[in-house]
Structures are given as C-alpha cells and as structure tokens.
TrEMBL record:
Residues 15-227 are annotated as: Phosphopantothenate--cysteine ligase. The chain holds residues 175 to 401 of 402 of the full protein. This is Coenzyme A biosynthesis bifunctional protein CoaBC. GO terms for biological process: coenzyme A biosynthetic process; pantothenate catabolic process. Its cofactor is FMN; Mg(2+).
Length: 227
C-alpha cells in the first residue's frame, strides 16, 4: 500500500526519445537505411514510462510493437522525424536521441519504380538535417539532452566532439567494432562521456540495463536543474 503512494522518480516529467533507423527512398520500393533495430530507444522509452514519465517515442521503421502506456509516433524519413521532434522538444524535460538517423537522402524520389537499363545508375545524396544538433541549439537550461555516438574508430575523440558541437549534457558512445555492441544486439557495451570530461566505461549490459543507467544519470541532472 505504501508503494502506490510513493511518487515515481520521473513522475510529472515529459521525456522524448528517438529510436530506430530512418528510410530514405529513391523510388516507391527502394530506400537507403542502416541495420538499427530500435531496441535501445524502445528500452529507454519503456523504462522512462515505468518511472512515471509522460513519454513520446518517435521511431523510424522497426519490427517492435508500440509499447503500452506511452505515445509512439511512427515516421519513415529523417525529414519526418525532424518535424515531429521539433514539435515535441519544446515541452520536453528530457530528450534522449538514440535514433540512427540517415545523414544523407536521395536528392530525388522517383514517382514510379526505377527500371534497370544497361547503364550504371547514379543516385545523388544530399544532407538531412541533424535533428539532435537542432534541438541542442535551442536547448534550455532546465532541459536534459542526451545523444548517442556510433563510432568505428577514435571513440573518445569523436564522441567528445559530438557532445560539444550538439550542446549535450552527456553522450553514450558505442564502439560498433566490438562484439555485443550496437546494431541489432540485445546487449551494449558503452562509454558515457559528460561535459566535465569524465568517461564512465560500462561493462557489457543488456539494453534494458543500459537504459536504466542512462535514466539514473538523467535523474541526477534533473535534480540539479530543478533546484
Ligand atoms: N543524429 C540526429 N540527426 C541526424 C544524425 C544524427 O539526431 N541527422 C543524432 C543521433 O540520434 C545520435 C547523434 O546525433 O544521437 C550522433 O549520431 P552519429 O551518427 O553517431 O553522429 P553524426 O553527428 O551523424 O556524425 P557521423 O555519422 O559523421 O559520425
Ligand atoms: Ca550519422
């Protein structure tokens, strides 16, 4: 009976999470993407909801079902994700961007299936917006902003640069060359880098456990901005 009266640790907070890959089409049946499963972002959204937060989960295409008790927004492209995130970010207390957003998209999308010819095919790719950097540029002091970094080399240097450039409170750095990390796994071995230059190397954990560690840190930061 006591337990139901105890406020949950993220009660009254709005948490925005991005998840999954994006699909960038060049015709109605073909697109550029990456192997992101969405598992890390879904684990974060479910855990934040379990802690009492109001959660908006903005996800690219995944095989995962809409989690109960939170708002799932399904998008396909980086441009769609950017629009939905911009709408929701202003009222969020916490924003965690784990989506593997495509950095480029085909400049043109053919209205019909592209037919093969005997010549080679060239697809010109143009930049998508950096959704996280956009949110970081307008971030308020009372908001907590968390990003991910997916790297295959120079993990600490690259992740530190992203942390600074995108105005993050901390960044979760993923070495994609390590077994048991990153795309499609149920586990993740990450380092968490903060603005003070601290590096926390976590052991290989389930994505659910990584989500708990991330949200524990978020709660610590929220206690600071709330006072
Ligand atoms: N991100 C984003 N929008 C993009 C690209 C990335 O919001 N168009 C976010 C990701 O969700 C992640 C962070 O930025 O939280 C870092 O993504 P990552 O791909 O590691 O870094 P990039 O800044 O895209 O740089 P690069 O891919 O060249 O390493
Ligand atoms: Ca990228």
């Amino acid at each position: 009976a006591v337990r139901v009266l105890t406020p949950k640790s993220l009660q009254g907070k709005r948490v925005l999470v991005t998840a999954g890959p994006t699909w960038e089409p060049f015709d109605p049946v073909r697109f550029i993407t990456n192997p992101s499963s969405g598992k890390m972002g879904f684990a974060l959204a479910v855990e934040a909801s379990r802690r009492g937060a109001h959660v908006d989960l903005v996800t690219g295409p995944t095989n995962l079902l809409d989690p109960p008790f939170l708002s799932t927004h399904r998008v396909k492209t980086a441009l769609e994700m950017d629009r939905v995130v911009r709408d929701l970010a202003a009222t969020a207390d916490v924003i965690v961007m784990s989506a593997a957003v495509s950095d480029y998209r085909p400049e043109e999308t053919a209205p019909q299936k592209v037919k093969k010819s005997d010549r080679d095919l060239t697809i010109r790719l143009i930049r998508t917006p950096d959704i996280l950097a956009g949110v970081g540029a307008v971030k308020r002091a009372d908001q907590v902003l968390v990003g991910f970094a997916a790297e295959t080399e120079n993990l600490i240097e690259n992740a530190t640069e992203k942390l600074r450039k995108k105005n993050l409170d901390f960044i979760v750095a993923n070495d994609l060359t390590r077994p048991g990390s990153g795309f499609r796994c149920d586990t993740n071995q990450v380092k968490i880098l903060d603005r003070g230059g601290q590096v926390d190397t976590l052991p290989c954990l389930t994505k659910n456990e990584v989500a708990r560690r991330i949200l524990d840190r978020v709660e610590t930061l929220l206690q600071k901005v709330d006072h």
